[in-house]
C-alpha cells in the first residue's frame, strides 16, 4: 500500500513545498499554500519503477508536405475570428472570464448552432444541473437544438461516456475547477486536481480528434485561476471581458497555436443572449456626449480590424497632497509618460491636478498609437476646450515630444471615412501612407507642442468656483468658443437627440 504523501501546494502557481510557509517563493503571493494529498501524483522510487526499455520512433526531416489543420466553423463569425477560422480537430481551448460575464451563454449558443448543423455537440456542466442548462437554452430560444447535456464531474466517467458512439466534434466542460480524477486524492478545485483533470481531457482530445473547450474561473485581478501550467498545456486561451454594467462583451485571444493572438470578437448582451457586432466602431461611439471637453475619438487597430473608440479624460484641481492618477482601459505607465511629456515640453502644469482617463465601452487598448488621442483629451479637459466632434486622432508620442507614425494608417482612415468623420489628426510622417482618401481632411502634426497650442487657443473660462485655482499655464494661451460650423460638423448618426 502506497504511503500517503502530504505537501503544501501554491494555489496560484502550483509550486509544492514540504512545509507550510506564509509566502510562496515562486510567485511571491501570500497565504496561497494549501495542504494536499499528492500520493497519486508522486512518482514511485527509482527501485520500484518499470525496467522496460524505451521504444524507438522514426525521425523525419523539415522538408515535406505540410497539411493545414482542418477547422470546423462554430457558426458565429466573431468566435471564428478569434479562434483563427474555427475549431481545429483535437484542439483544447481554455475560456476565462468574470462570473456572470456570459461564458456559459456564449458556449450554449455555439454548441446549439453546431448541433443544428448536424455535428455532435456535448455540453458537460459541473456547476449546474441539467434542468438549469435547459432553462438557459429556453430563454435563448435554443431548446430545440439537439445538444447532448450531462451534469457530471468525474473525468473517467466523462471520457468513458464520450468514447461510445460517434466522436463528438465539440465538447464543453463547464468548468475545469469542478472536475476530479481518481488518480489524485486532492479535493476538486485544487491545483493537483485541476492539472491532472486537464491532462486527461487533453489526451482524450488528441486521441479522438474532438475539440474541447474548458471553462476556467478567474481570480480577483482577472487572471485565470489555478496553475499557469494549464494555460501552457492547452492550445488556445481566450479571455471574455466586459463590464457588468454595460452590454458590450469582448472575446480576446491571449494564446493561440493555430491563429493570431491580437484578434477580438465583439458581442452585445441582449435579452435573447449574445448578439454579434459586425461594426464595433459604431457601437462604441453610439453614446458619445458631443460638445463636452475631454473627449477624443481614437482610431485603433485590434488584430486586422480597425476600431474607433472614444477616450474620455477629466482633469480637476486636487485637494490632496499627491494628485490622483486613475486610468481604465489603458496602460497606466503610458498615461504617466504622456503627462510627463506634456509638462516637460508643452508647459502643461498638471502636478496640482487629479487626472482620470477612461476608454468608453469597456475596451482595453494596448497599442501606443492612442498617445495622441489621450493627450488631446487631457488638454481639452484642462483648458475646457471641446475638440471637433468630426475628428479622429492617432499617433505615438516620443519622450522628446515628437509625434511618431504608426502602422496601418490607411485602414484607420478608411474606417473613419466609413463612419462619417471629416478630419483626421495624425503624425506628419504618416501623410505618405494616407494616400488619397476622399472626404477626409488630414491635419498632420510633427510635435505635440503645436497640437497643445491649437487646443488651448479654443479654451473657454470655467465656472466661477474654479477661477481661483491654477488651471495650468497652457490655458492662458487663448480662449475662444468653438465656431458654429464645428458644432454642426458632427455626422448625423452620432448626434445626441435631447428631449
UniProtKB/TrEMBL annotation:
Name of the coding gene: radA
Chain residues that bind ATP: 97-104
Function: Plays a role in repairing double-strand DNA breaks, probably involving stabilizing or processing branched DNA or blocked replication forks.
Protein name: DNA repair protein RadA
RecA family profile domain location: 68-218
Source organism (scientific name): Bradyrhizobium ontarionense
Placement of sequence motif RadA KNRFG motif: 255-259
UniProt similarity note: Belongs to the RecA family. RadA subfamily.
Protein keywords: ATP-binding, DNA damage, DNA repair, DNA-binding, Hydrolase, Metal-binding, Nucleotide-binding, Stress response, Zinc, Zinc-finger
Domain comment, as recorded: The middle region has homology to RecA with ATPase motifs including the RadA KNRFG motif, while the C-terminus is homologous to Lon protease.
